[in-house]
Amino acid sequence: MRPPYLILLPALALMTAGCATRQIQNNQGYIADEELANSVQPGVDNKESVQRALGRPTLESRWDPNVWYYVSRNTKQLAFARPVPRDQRVIIVRFAADGSVSNVERRGLEHVANISPNSDKTPTLGREATLLEDLFGNIGTVGAAPGGGGPQ
């Protein structure tokens, strides 16, 4: 007869093998080629040449169609945890009214604002009802006069 720990030891080893820490890396958005991004020059390029060099922008400004954004982001993640940004690059190309490039900016992860919400629950006015009050709270009010309370 084998001791029970000899049987449990292989089972424990198999269970912990699935818990190995492996990071998942993900690239999102525009994959920037630094040489092409550096080739965009204010006063020299226009919308067509920028689109040929960098491709279509990730997004255009909603308020000004003469501002293009190229956004790329690298994240890491452990198993089922939320992804954590490792690197983020934003190339902002601004155009003059005639369509020529007026300015090229680069921004990184240091410009990202970290917003932490107040809580997971939205504050509301009024009282908080329990589950039983929610289930049985309307008993006796069916057919009652407007304003509730039933007959007096």
TrEMBL record:
Entry's Gene Ontology molecular function annotations: protein-macromolecule adaptor activity
A matching Pfam family: BamE
One BP annotation, GO: Gram-negative-bacterium-type cell outer membrane assembly
Keywords: Cell outer membrane, Membrane, Signal
Signal sequence residues: 1-22
Ranges for domain Outer membrane protein assembly factor BamE: 29-104
A cellular-component GO term for this protein: Bam protein complex
Claim: Signal is one of the keywords in the record: yes
Keyword ATP-binding on entry: no
PANTHER family for this protein: OUTER MEMBRANE PROTEIN ASSEMBLY FACTOR BAME (PTHR37482:SF1)
Descriptive protein name: Outer membrane protein assembly factor BamE
